[in-house]
Specification:
Residues 24-274 form the EAL domain. Helix content is 49%, strand content 19%. The chain has 12 helices and 9 strands. A hairpin with a 3-residue loop joins strand 2 and strand 3 (70-72). It binds ligand C2E and magnesium ion (3 copies).
Length: 274
């Protein structure tokens, strides 16, 4: 009985591995066609001034609508795109699309709107990354000062020397640079003084449940103190409740995004046509 049970368990384990390998294989082959097939779209999450709710920018977030798989969330495909290198052409498309939409919003009467785009490690490390950014800005006419590139600590820390050089080139174009998910990666504090940064984005995990008595309170206060010393702007992510918003404001954080204000939505929903 024991042996049989064990064998059955092994068989289940084995087929589970096969199934996952197959699903992965299928995901990657679907992903290869996604861009050509026009299945990718960008949604935009408003970023607001917490004091008055006025939108100052949007973060572009990738969505994949597949006929069989349905709506695939980034968490389910970005890592596969990174591992296969597909993130490079996908990322270039994302940049182009975000700049195109940003330029259109300007024409439609939102001249100060900023657009933030997430950049992955492989994309950032491409020899021609800065040229790609410059070309898309040029082709769309979107002003560089209104484009913000979000890098994670992990991306920056992979090779600090070359990251700093590349970030300088981007800053020379006029583009803004933010550190996404700040506080969740492993990073040393001395790099903050060396990087040509504009913005720290406080990760949602620090914002969740934030109140004057929550354990995250001193952490968020410390991040805001750091940002002040380095003269960086701060944007809090994942704000869901009025208490989180109020606590952030009391700590002196006046910019943020989250479901309390708006989820990521289609371009036409951010600013409905008048
Ligand atoms: P991220 O850049 O940190 O984006 C913030 C994530 O938090 C988004 O998830 C957003 O939908 C979600 N979010 C916004 N407000 C709230 C809230 O109030 N509560 C909660 N719980 N979540 C909130 P999303 O869109 O699923 O994206 C996940 C991650 O995938 C992003 O994290 C980013 O790292 C990556 N990603 C998304 N689009 C792109 C892209 O175009 N390129 C690259 N390289 N990565 C992307
Ligand atoms: Mg981001
Ligand atoms: Mg983030
Ligand atoms: Mg994230």
């Amino acid at each position: 009985y024991h042996a049989k049970h064990h064998q059955a368990g092994f068989a289940v384990f084995h087929s589970d591995m096969n199934r996952r390998a197959y699903e992965r294989f299928q995901l990657v082959s679907f992903l290869r066609q996604a861009q050509q097939a026009g299945e990718l779209e960008l949604h935009y999450q408003p970023q607001v001034d917490l004091r008055n709710g006025v939108i100052f920018g949007v973060e572009a977030l990738l969505r994949w609508q597949h006929s069989q798989l349905g709506m695939v969330q980034p968490e389910a495909f970005i890592s596969a795109a990174e591992e296969t290198g597909l993130i490079v052409p996908i990322g270039a498309w994302t940049l182009a699309e975000a700049c195109r939409q940003g330029a259109l919003w300007r024409q439609q009467g939102h001249p100060e709107l900023r657009v933030a785009v997430n950049v992955s490690a492989l994309q950032f490390e491409q020899e021609d990354f800065v040229d790609v950014v410059a070309r898309h800005l040029d082709e769309t006419g979107f002003p560089p000062e209104h484009l913000e590139l979000e890098l994670t600590e992990r991306v920056v820390m992979r090779n600090v020397e070359s990251s700093v050089a590349r970030m300088r080139q981007l800053r020379n174009l006029g583009v803004m640079i933010s550190v996404d998910d700040f506080g969740t990666g492993y990073s040393s504090l001395n790099y903050l003084s060396r990087l040509p940064l504009n913005v720290l984005k406080i990760d949602g995990s620090f914002v969740r449940g934030l109140s004057p008595r929550s354990p995250n309170f001193p952490v968020v206060r410390a991040i805001l103190g750091l940002a002040r010393s380095f003269q960086l702007e701060v944007i809090a992510e994942g704000i869901e409740t009025a208490l989180e918003r109020q606590t952030l404001e009391e700590l002196g954080c006046c910019l943020g995004q989250g479901h309390l204000f708006a989820p990521p939505c289609r371009a036409a929903e951010v600013f409905p046509p008048i």
